[in-house]
Each structure stands twice: as C-alpha cells, then as structure tokens.
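just leaving the lab so this will be short. what follows is a protein written twice so to speak, once as letters and once as structure tokens for the fold. can you read through it and tell me how you think this chain folds. thanks a lot i owe you, the record is right below.

___
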Amino acid sequence: MRLATWVEIDLACVERNARHLARLATVPLMAVVKANGYGHGAVSVASAALRGGAAWCGVARPEEALELRRGGLGCPILLMGWASPNALPELVAGSVSLTVWSAAQVDEIAAVARGLGRKARVHLKVDTGMTRLGLTLAETVELARRVAATEGIAQEGVFTHFACADDPASQATADQEQKLREVVSAITAAGIRPGLVHAANSAATLTRPSARFDLVRVGTALYGLEPSPLCPLPASLQPALAWKSILTQVKVVPPCRGVSYGYTYTTTRHERIGTAAVGYGDGFRRTEGNIVLVGGRRLPVIGRVCMDQVLIQLDDVPEALVGEEVVLIGAQGAEVLRAEDLAKAWGTISYEVVCGITARVPRRST
C-alpha cells in the first residue's frame, strides 16, 4: 500500500551523530529520546545511539522509560521528569533511575524499593536558574542527607538544566554552571558523594567544555537539528529525518478561482495546481508561507492548509504528475528543506516541528 505521507528516519545517521558527539564530549553520552525520540521513534533511535557510543538514555515520562525497557534496551535510563506513585513499582523493578526534588518523592520511592527488595537510584535536580523543577543549594544538601539516611534508595547523581546555552554569548550559562559547582561542593562537604554531575544539553556540549562534567545529555544535536541559529551544528552532524508526501491530483485552474478554505488565495491566470496528501492533521501547520519541494524545485503552498491536504502552485514544474514525491523536510535533487526552514516559517523551533509530526504519520527506518 502506498502511503499518503510518511517520515523516513536514517538510523545510520543517528548512529554517526552519536559517535561524533561521544568523541567530542569525552565523557559518557546520554541520548535524550523523550517525546518519541523527538518524533523520530524512541526505541529505534535509542538503539542506534547506543550503537554509536551513547551510554545512557534520557526520557521525560514514565511510559517513555518503560517503552525502552519493553523494547529490549538494558542501558541505564534516567527519567528526568515526574513519576506518579503508581508507576514507581515498574520503574524501580526496571532499574530506571529517577529524578527527585522533594522529601515526599524520596520517601515514596524508598518505600517501593524496600517492598521489592531493591535499591532505587535517584538524581537530585537543582534549580540553578531555569525556574522549572529543582531545589536551591540548601534544599539540595538537605535532600541529599535524607537520601543518604534512607534505606532502599541511593544517590546516583545531581544535575541541572541550562536555560540559555543556545546563546553562547549569554552570561546565564556560566552563572548556572557556577551554582551547580557550589551545590556539588556543599554536598561533598556534608560527607556525601554527589555521584554523576551533569548539566550540558546539546548546545552546552557543543560550545562549553567546562560544563560537560561527568555526563552530557544530548537531544536535538543527536538528530542533526541545530540548537538555535546562534548555535549551529558542525558539518559532521546531519539531519536524520525526512518528511514526504505525494501529489494526488494535478489540474489547471482558470483565473479568478478561489483556492481552499476562505479563498485566501485566488488564481490570477490559468495556474497548474497540485494537491498533496498531507495537512495539519499530520503536523503540517495551517500557516502562510509554507514551501515544499517538487521536482527538485522550491514551490509555494497556496491557500489554507487543510487537515489532510495542501495545495501547491506547480507552474514551475510543468512535468509534475500525480504520484510525484513532495518533500516537506529533506532533500530532493540539489534543493534541501530543513526542519529549521519550517520552524522559521512557523515562528517556532525545529524541535517543535519534528515533535509535532503526528502519530498517524508512519515512520520508516532506512
């Protein structure tokens, strides 16, 4: 069966990206595969990253960690977000490392671990300036003491998350790094081993060697997406995802004819217009300024994007026929459309573009 729209994932590319990043970091690499591997397919990209030298996987939700375990991955996994109490037994039994920022979490996790006859491993989350999750310096030391005194639980690490690392000129990252160092020193002074210290995301891994500590957590760069326009990728890191569709109808439309909902576009002459089988139901946003590739040319999407279809002005590719490939992200001939290009048109970031490709779009590994 031919698909209307699909995503192609180059797993060899993910593996190469992981290998380059692991060499660059010189410390263990955590492949961040939350949000279904940034829309690329969590289990398959995690496996590729591990083949490329990643040592850990990082996720945000309990179900993501459990998906990796059920997919056969035995590597260390860190759940960086909140775990509901009813998810704890399977997480602890599956040796998933957990993130904590409160005494209540420590007590809940320890009780579950004791009941299973196991010892749970936790990482303390420090808020050094992201103002999202985490503890102050004093609170972190207090919680470290609680973990050390509680049976069934052990501190495996301490970490923070940078708010502005994708802007290398920002002083905020240096300030956050210094605060984390102070926390680690305070924990050590209290006679407690901090375990793995980690802070660097993709941007900091690429630009800030001092922030790599004992482990780096790489998400966007693993997939060949730039952290920001201010933090471009080295040429050795390449995009792993392509998004494609097909032309399902091609017709010549007379002048003064409205196109798609609301008639935001009206033909000015006889125009050759194609319909492609992709729309906002697939994650292709209903916004103006969209561009696609057909016949190796950049062509405008005209009229409003529909839930399942878009309309394309084909005058520049008169040879295009029904069944022809339409590229939304990826290469065709000498032309390339990047996720970053879509992000610019949509007023967002490339991460949101790829994470927003909906579940009804099949992923094909190549």
The domain at 11-223 is CATH 3.20.20.10 (TIM Barrel). The two ends are 18 Å apart (CA to CA).
